[in-house]
Design brief:
The complex is a heterodimer of chains A (267) and B (229). Chain A is mostly helical and 267 residues long. Chain A has helices spanning 9-19, 25-30, 32-65, 69-84, 87-97, 102-106, 110-114, 117-142, 146-154, 159-189, 201-212, 217-244. Chain A has 12 helices and no strands. Chain B is mainly alpha-helical and 229 residues long. Chain B has a single domain (2-222), classed as MetI-like (MetI-like fold), CATH 1.10.3720. The longest helix of chain B is centred in the N-terminal third of the chain and has 34 residues, at 8-41. The chains are: A mainly alpha (267), B mainly alpha (229).
Chain lengths: 267, 229
């Protein structure tokens, strides 16, 4: 083997990285696959939960906006509960809590679904994002200009057609800035996955730090991964808003209309 | 539910820690928010850029990641610094401090945006009038900007506070003996995790309801002089 005077360039880089660099980037690079798998898991659960939660929220928002007698109360309770409590505790309740009941453990759902962290997280995340999305979608359905609805009625549209062709398309547009915040918040909240044994991005970082007894490397890498994801999502929504909300843009404003502001639109 | 009642002291202690954590973080967040908003509105491009990267960083990184980085990494950094300079031997960041600093840091960025919007909503002429009367910039802030800023900022402030209270639950992950940690430990030991977690959810809902009442009182106080339509 080569002795120290004759080491290769890469050995030298590894040496510098381990002993003289504030962050051991070669070590991180060696385990980058963990972070990539983690990214996949984070995205997988976040995206599926957002899709399912979004689908759930549309009928609920319509029912809330129209003050449906039998639906309004229960849906309000549902959204109040999910928006008023921490996602972490909701996840603990389902993942650690349900095993308390014998009938749950003996039911047919236990083995494939409720005993697995992946499924529990997906269920809780879906309901959670459905709660938040319902409320701001309700807001934007309620603010549909009366003239648009009257115009639809005057054209002889049935209530269903009116909803499909007039109310929802315009409500979705107005909800878009709030929805981009919701997506980013969901991505942020997905760190809860690492607390129920799942290897998401933060999970990979915690694994790396635990394995090599490090203080920064894993967390800093996780931080960079999350920042890249958020950057891509914001850019995507920015373009989408430019496209969908083009009719609201000012003539001299080339940047698009809404720089989605930094606010946790999650209450 | 009987077992929850038996453990009421533990849950109560946890709730106190959670509330202290939330209030401490709020204080830091308001402070950082005021500094951040001033920096964003200043004419100095360096300050603007610093405040801009602060809010971008917070928007990009989940709070738990910052919390862990501060709790584990900050500790290391502090001790390395002490070793190099010889100013201190060994310092330990406890979970409470790490929680207050990371949650305060994150929500400071949200408060920055809140306060910036509120300050921009104050008619410029009022501030000019204050200066014309010979007020110092401190006096302008205390007499003109602050009282009205609070009014404009309150809805968004309420929002931030409610999200902040929920964010405190994450500190249990780094081992602070808060409400969530106490309840999950107790729940595990008596094998009733569901009951205990449900109790925690209820306590969070009660905290939210209480802050709702308080914030509504503040809204009334600070909107004195606003005409109701």
């Amino acid at each position: 083997m080569a002795d120290t005077t004759e080491r290769t360039f890469w050995e030298y880089v590894a040496y510098v990285s381990e002993h003289h660099s504030p962050l051991d980037f070669v070590l991180v690079w060696d385990h980058i696959d963990r972070f990539l798998w983690g990214t996949l898991l984070t995205l997988e659960i976040t995206v599926i939960a957002l899709l399912l939660g979004g689908m759930l929220s549309v009928p609920m928002a319509i029912a809330r906006a129209h003050k449906q007698r039998w639906l309004n109360g229960p849906i309000w309770c549902f959204t109040y509960f999910f928006r008023g409590t921490p996602l972490l505790v909701q996840t603990y309740l389902v993942y650690y809590g349900l095993a308390q009941f014998d009938w749950v453990r003996e039911s047919f759902l236990w083995d494939p679904v409720l005993s697995s962290a992946w499924w529990c997280a997906l269920i809780v995340f879906t309901l959670n994002t459905a709660g938040y999305t319902t409320e701001f979608l309700r807001g934007s359905i309620e603010t549909t200009p009366a003239g648009e609805i009257e115009a639809g009625r005057a054209c002889g549209m049935s209530p269903l057609t009116l909803m499909r062709r007039i109310v929802l398309p315009s409500a979705f547009r107005r909800a878009l800035p709030a929805y981009s915040n919701e997506v980013i918040f969901m991505l942020h909240s997905s760190v809860v996955l690492s607390t129920i044994t799942l290897q998401d991005i933060l999970g990979a970082g915690r694994w790396l730090n635990g394995r090599y007894y490090l203080a920064y490397e894993g967390f800093v890498t996780a931080m960079i991964f999350y920042m890249i994801l958020v950057f891509i999502i914001s850019r995507g929504f920015h373009l989408w808003e430019k496209h969908w909300l083009a009719h609201l843009r000012l003539a001299n404003d080339s940047n698009g209309i809404t720089d989605s502001k930094l606010a946790p639109d999650r209450v | 539910m009987d077992t929850v009642w038996q453990y009421r002291n533990l849950l109560f202690d946890g709730t106190v820690v959670t509330v202290q954590l939330a209030l401490g973080s709020l204080l830091l967040a308001v402070l950082l928010g005021l500094i951040g908003a001033t920096a964003k509105l200043s004419t100095n491009p360096l300050w603007q850029r610093l405040a801009g990267s602060y809010t971008t960083l917070v928007r990009g990184v989940p709070d738990l990641v910052l919390m862990m980085l501060l709790f584990y990494g900050g500790q290391q950094l502090l001790n390395d610094f002490g070793e190099v300079t010889g100013w201190w031997d060994y310092l330990e960041i406890n979970q409470f401090t790490a929680g207050v600093f990371s949650i305060g840091f994150v929500f400071g960025a949200y408060m920055t945006e809140t306060f910036r919007g509120a300050i921009l909503a104050i008619p410029r002429g009022q501030i000019e009038a204050g200066i014309a009367c010979g007020m110092t910039s401190m006096k302008v802030f205390l007499r003109i900007t602050w009282p009205q800023m609070v009014r404009y900022a309150l809805p968004s402030f309420t929002n931030n506070w409610l999200v902040l209270v929920k964010a405190t639950a994450l500190v249990s992950v780094i081992g602070l003996h808060d409400l969530v940690w106490n309840a999950s430990t107790a729940g595990r030991s008596v094998r009733e995790p569901f009951t205990f977690m449900f109790a925690v959810l209820m306590i969070y809902l009660i905290l939210t309801a209480i802050s709702d009442v308080g914030l509504r009182w503040m809204e009334r106080k600070y909107s004195v002089g606003v005409r109701k339509v």
